[in-house]
Backbone:
């Protein structure tokens, strides 16, 4: 199948640049939803429930008694009431927020950082060109009735109503000087929805319209909009982002115009130059290769904690703190990933010893050293000019904007690297990946088609392709089920190639014992239609087909089933009599098939 590759060079800062390195997972605190005690005077529309379910056409949730899910039971047809909004007792400045959201059909809400800056919550399923008012958009501010600074998501990563959706927000509060004058505006470092980045480094100079406060502050409570419609939340977690204040002093350096593998080896010769250093700076080396440079000094630590150091250089390097090896001797180059090490440090002054042996003439000289701790952003300990700013690898993506596209590649699926996989994209922006050896759908997604950078950039390793949109991961099991086999794979399932329709849609062909099976997948407005056909249907043989497999499968009525932790839907035609059975600790939706089976995957 012919395809085209579109290359767009994305000038964005990578993991480690002159200003940041983030190698430490934050300590996320869980916001308790066992009671409503963490909120300020919650209005009656806010409740705690044990479960929340809805189909993709439902405007109301079915809930059960319990705790763990925060549920807003406010009909969007009612009159707006600002008293229905919900504020936390917790106040935050810089914060990382993580939560799961369920939105019924047509509903609307919002998350207000510091009760001032809104990230929109909206049923935006199927929207092709999202606006600032769609799910994940940064809602506009207001000035004398005129909106400004609204920011639309880069893409629509929204799932169908009634499914859980995961959102992450990294927020930087506005800064103020001692007199209370604002010195820098609030910023959304990033907003992610279902694993897809919607925004990066978006500055908001004023509160959103309908915010709780007109002024700005270094701290404020989190607020959830409650008077626009029903919505449910769970797994609310947050980490306050400390401003890490670390300084260095008494810096000195020794520079040798020759290679040395260790500090001890370098010390056997006289330095080419040495003395006090204003900063850790690779430019103290006057040649580009075959040199050794060492920095010593003091580092002032504000509080006792575990600190992670990240080091980037071309060649070998290492770090000792208080005589203890923190970053063992390691090799990297300035275009690669840093080497790291973690140690516990008490508050106060500590000595350090940093060294680099540059002996690779093909790599550009440079040296960077960062420090961070959980719930802080990384701090650079080197001079900004010590290392060049790096840009990301070019994005190499395959688009399916004019015709159906098929790309063979390796696919990472649930921790396994599958070698016989194909991804299929459609101009309708409905896409999927498929395991050819088992006739299994691996993942489905909407939006842009396929990121093939790892297949084509430089050496093309690890040769994997990834969705450009928000993927829903399926079990990836063979549709034919054989009770005699304990594994999820079917040994007798033999791939026989595929045929293309006049419009370019593939039908995959398989042999299973004496049967021939065809698997046809086509996009619909809801998702993906699958038609499994068995030829010939000998002796009225019934084949047990596995439609879905996950931790849970819940019937919602009228042939609709929600799969897993409300991750996607399966819709069966009327008259089908499926069974839900337990297999290998999971639930499996089985349908007996004689001639053919048609159903839809909806997400």
Residues:
């Amino acid at each position: 199948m012919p395809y085209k590759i579109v290359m767009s060079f994305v000038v964005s800062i990578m993991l480690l640049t002159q200003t940041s390195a983030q190698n430490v997972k934050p300590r996320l605190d869980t916001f308790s939803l066992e009671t409503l005690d963490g909120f300020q005077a919650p209005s009656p529309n806010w409740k705690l429930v044990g479960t929340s379910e809805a189909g993709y056409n439902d405007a109301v949730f079915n809930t059960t008694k319990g705790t763990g899910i925060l549920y807003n039971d406010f009909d969007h047809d009612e009159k707006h009431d600002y008293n229905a909004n919900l504020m936390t007792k917790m106040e935050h400045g810089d914060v990382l927020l993580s939560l799961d959201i369920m939105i019924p059909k047509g509903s609307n809400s919002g998350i207000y950082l510091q009760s001032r800056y809104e990230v929109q919550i909206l049923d935006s399923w199927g929207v092709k060109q999202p606006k600032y008012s769609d799910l994940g958009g940064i809602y506009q501010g207001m000035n004398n009735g005129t909106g400004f600074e609204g920011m639309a998501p880069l893409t629509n990563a929204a799932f169908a109503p009634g499914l859980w959706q995961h959102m992450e927000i990294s927020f930087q509060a506005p800064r103020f000087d001692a007199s209370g004058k604002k010195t820098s505006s609030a910023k959304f470092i990033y907003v992610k929805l279902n694993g897809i980045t919607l925004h990066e480094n978006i500055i908001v100079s004023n509160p959103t319209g309908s915010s709780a406060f007109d002024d700005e502050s270094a701290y404020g409570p989190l607020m959830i909009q409650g008077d626009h419609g029903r919505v449910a939340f769970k797994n609310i977690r947050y980490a306050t982002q400390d401003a890490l204040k670390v300084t260095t002093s008494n810096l000195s350096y020794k520079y040798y115009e020759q290679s040395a593998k260790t500090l001890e080896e370098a010390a056997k010769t006289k330095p080419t130059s040495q003395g006090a250093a204003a900063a850790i700076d690779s430019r103290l080396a006057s040649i580009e290769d075959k040199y050794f440079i060492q920095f010593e000094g003091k580092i002032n630590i504000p509080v006792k904690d575990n600190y992670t150091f990240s080091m980037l250089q071309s060649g070998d390097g290492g770090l000792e703190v208080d005589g203890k090896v923190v970053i063992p001797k390691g090799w990297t180059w300035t275009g690669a990933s840093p080497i790291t090490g973690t140690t516990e440090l008490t508050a106060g002054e500590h000595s350090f010893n940093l060294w680099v042996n540059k002996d690779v003439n093909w790599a550009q000289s440079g040296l960077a050293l960062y420090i961070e701790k959980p719930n802080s952003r990384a701090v650079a300990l080197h001079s900004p000019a010590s290392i060049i700013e790096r840009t990301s690898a070019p994005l190499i993506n395959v688009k399916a904007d004019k015709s159906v596209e098929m790309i063979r590649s390796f696919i990472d699926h649930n921790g396994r690297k599958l070698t016989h996989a194909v991804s299929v994209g459609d101009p309708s922006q409905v896409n999927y990946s498929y395991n050819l050896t088992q006739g299994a759908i691996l993942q489905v997604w909407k939006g842009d088609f396929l990121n093939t950078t790892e297949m084509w950039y430089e050496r093309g390793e690890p040769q994997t392709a990834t969705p450009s949109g928000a993927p829903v991961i399926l079990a990836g099991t063979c549709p034919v089920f054989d009770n005699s086999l304990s594994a999820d794979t079917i040994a007798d399932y033999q791939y026989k190639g595929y045929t293309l329709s006049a419009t370019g849609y593939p039908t995959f062909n398989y042999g299973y014992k004496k049967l021939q099976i065809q698997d046809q997948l086509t996009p619909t407005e809801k998702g993906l239609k699958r038609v499994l056909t068995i030829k010939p249907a000998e002796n009225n043989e019934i084949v047990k087909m596995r439609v879905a497999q996950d931790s849970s499968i819940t019937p919602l009525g009228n042939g609709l089933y929600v799969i897993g932790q409300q991750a996607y839907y399966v819709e069966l035609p009327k008259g089908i009599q499926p069974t839900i059975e337990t297999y290998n600790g999971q639930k499996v939706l089985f349908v007996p098939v004689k001639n053919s089976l048609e159903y839809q995957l909806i997400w």
Notes: The longest strand covers residues 62-72. The CA atoms of residues 51 and 64 lie 5 Å apart.
